[in-house]
Amino acid sequence: MDKKALLTKLIIDDTLTRHRIPVHEELIIALYEDTEIAQHIDFIINKINAKTAEKITPQSKVQPILLLLPPARDLVSEEISLPKAHSLKPGQIPTHATSMPIEKPIIHPPTAKITLSNAKVGTAFNSTLNIELNTLEIAQIEAVDVPEGLGITFDHESRCLVGMPTKSGNFTLVIHWSVNAIRYQNEVLLIINPDPRSLWQINEPPADSPYPKIHIDSKLILEKDIRIAGASRRGRSHEHAGTFRDDDFYIHHDNQSQWSILIVADGAGSARYSREGSRIAINTVSRYLKSQLSVENGTVKPHLEAIHQWNDNNAINQVGSFFAQLFRNAAQLAINNLKNEAIHINEPVKSFSTTLLATVSLRINDELFAASFWMGDGAIAAYGPAGKVRVLGIPDSGEYAGQTRFLDDNALNDAEFNRRIIIGKWKDISHLILMTDGVSDPVFETDNGLQDPNKWAALIDEISPCLASPENAANALAEWLNFFSAGNHDDRTLVVAW
């Protein structure tokens, strides 16, 4: 097929199908340089237009010269449009191009990341709602749908969820927000944790358990110028497990000799019958100290002058030796009785492991003399005047939390046993205090905390309302011992002379 025939066929095909595609500029130029071909093309176009005038939009008389390819798509669904005719001279290039369909862009909504804090039942809640958009635009919160009965509302001004949560669980909130006047909504999870106190159960020990002990105990001594209160209560861990209180205590004042005796003991939580071990230790030591400090016995009488005068170092050393032997004897008797009970029921003596903190004191005018024995953890202190404290011993802390020393032969035979005894005489002592670790751990937290006068001052401030009415001090202390401290759920025992 020669050039004219090929070109004519292409023009006819394109004209009939109305599918126009521009050709390369080099080919168009070559065609236009051939005058004979151009005239022949014009003739063919005019003849086709004349025969199909009813289907072709009226055109200008002069038609552009295009090289067009055969059809490639279904023509029924395509719109037909003819370009306006322009007069082109040889060597000129058509400037128009076939219009292509334009797709509308797909607009994706912004992605929102919404964050808020967890809440806790019974604790004031205030959490800012933060919305971060992937477009970095600023979102406006329109409203928040909160399930009814949660005790939480949305504050528009602060953009915060506020309130006092009333129930625990996972709850879905619907956040309505907008950006650029377009509104959106997202669901977000609100976690409300339960009040830890609500998780603790109160269970009774089995009725046939050996060595029963009451869960709460308190005692009070009110004499002329003597006020001593003691209280002990079962810890939450024992309540939850349905076991007995391991702590025990003893308070006494001799009206004839004027000596006071204060003792606390904490049975080892890992020891099966430590609740009885603490009771045996308390009963044994208290009986011995009471008998030795009585007027009838008279063993302390040779040292009373030194205690009153307190100005002779040699005499003071003798006082120290006396009380070191006194507490050693008391500890030995307690250990013997622990062994006897273990033999009686065919149990290892470690099943009765217990700590022991004991203090004997004597008021002399505006001064207080005290001698203390400290075996295990807990605390003994003489407080006063305000802001000044004297810790009467060193706690036996172990290598890990909860480890301590217990009353046994190894402790008694330790070459440094006498370091467990401290004596002293001070003015303006307002409080003499003994406690088990169920109190000292949450109050002082660490052994270093025991030396902090500010922590002792804070403790005195807390228990002062309990002591304000002396006749009810013991019961008030028992109630105060029920304070909640996360992670501290042991038995608690506190003895105060004030």
What do these coordinates show?
This protein has 498 residues and is of the alpha+beta class. Helix content is 29%, strand content 25%. The protein has helices at residues 3-17, 25-33, 35-51, 196-199, 236-241, 274-292, 301-309, 313-344, 409-412, 437-444, 453-467, 473-480; strands at 112-115, 119-120, 125-128, 130-133, 140-145, 152-155, 160-163, 169-179, 182-193, 216-223, 226-233, 247-253, 259-266, 356-364, 367-375, 379-383, 389-391, 421-427, 431-435, 492-497. Strand 14 (356-364) and strand 15 form a beta hairpin. The longest helix has 32 residues, at 313-344. Residues 56-62 and 64-83 have low confidence and may be disordered.
Using brief descriptors, characterize the structure shown.
12 helices; alpha+beta; 6-stranded antiparallel beta sheet; about 500 residues; single chain; 5-stranded antiparallel beta sheet
What's the layout of helices and strands?
Blueprint: H1 3-17, H2 25-33, H3 35-51, E1 112-115, E2 119-120, E3 125-128, E4 130-133, E5 140-145, E6 152-155, E7 160-163, E8 169-179, E9 182-193, H4 196-199, E10 216-223, E11 226-233, H5 236-241, E12 247-253, E13 259-266, H6 274-292, H7 301-309, H8 313-344, E14 356-364, E15 367-375, E16 379-383, E17 389-391, H9 409-412, E18 421-427, E19 431-435, H10 437-444, H11 453-467, H12 473-480, E20 492-497
Parallel strand pairs: 2-9
Antiparallel strand pairs: 1-4, 3-7, 5-8, 6-7, 8-9, 10-11, 11-20, 12-13, 13-14, 14-15, 15-18, 16-17, 16-19, 19-20
Short description:
The protein has 498 residues and is of the alpha+beta class. Helix content is 29%, strand content 25%. It has 12 helices and 20 strands.
